[in-house]
Design a protein that fits this description.
This protein is mainly α. The protein has two domains: about 90 residues, Arc Repressor Mutant, subunit A, CATH 1.10.10; about 40 residues. The protein has six helices and two strands; from the N terminus they run αααββααα. α2 packs across α3. The two termini are about 20 Å apart. The N terminus is likely disordered.
């Protein structure tokens, strides 16, 4: 995982929520984004966030009559990796080990045996790839 800082790592909480809506819906108008957000934000606030995300190059839009229909320009997995890299850098001094240890020891739920087996397999795979 890269620790490179980019526009995805510097999103505000609300901007991340808007991106999540666009990832879930695929595309949406300002009104649809506003309806999908749990918080009560007015139309102009949502429109402003969409404008900022457009300026950051993270979302695009097309005109449909008088409406603008917005969509993400970055794949969800890329956005998730970038956000996670920012989180690891900010809260765990760049240590993936510390982040994983925290998730394993202080998670909100216990991992099942199957989940632990899948994590162990991912670690084994990473070791094999590094050993090449």
């Amino acid at each position: 995982m890269s620790t490179e800082q980019g526009p995805l790592t510097s999103l505000s909480k609300r901007e991340r929520q808007v991106m999540d809506v666009l990832f879930r819906l695929g595309q949406a108008t300002v009104g649809e984004v506003q309806s999908a957000l749990a918080a009560s934000l007015n139309y102009n606030a949502v429109r402003g966030m969409l404008r900022v995300l457009t300026e950051k190059g993270l979302i695009g839009y097309r005109q449909d009559g008088v409406r603008y229909v917005y969509h993400a320009l970055v794949p969800k997995d890329e956005a998730a990796e970038s956000a996670l890299a920012g989180l690891v850098q900010t809260f765990f001094e760049g240590s993936v080990e510390q982040a994983v240890a925290t998730l394993l020891s202080k998670g909100e739920r216990n991992l099942t045996s199957e989940e632990l087996d899948r994590l162990a397999a991912l670690i084994d795979q990473a070791r094999k790839e590094r050993g090449r």
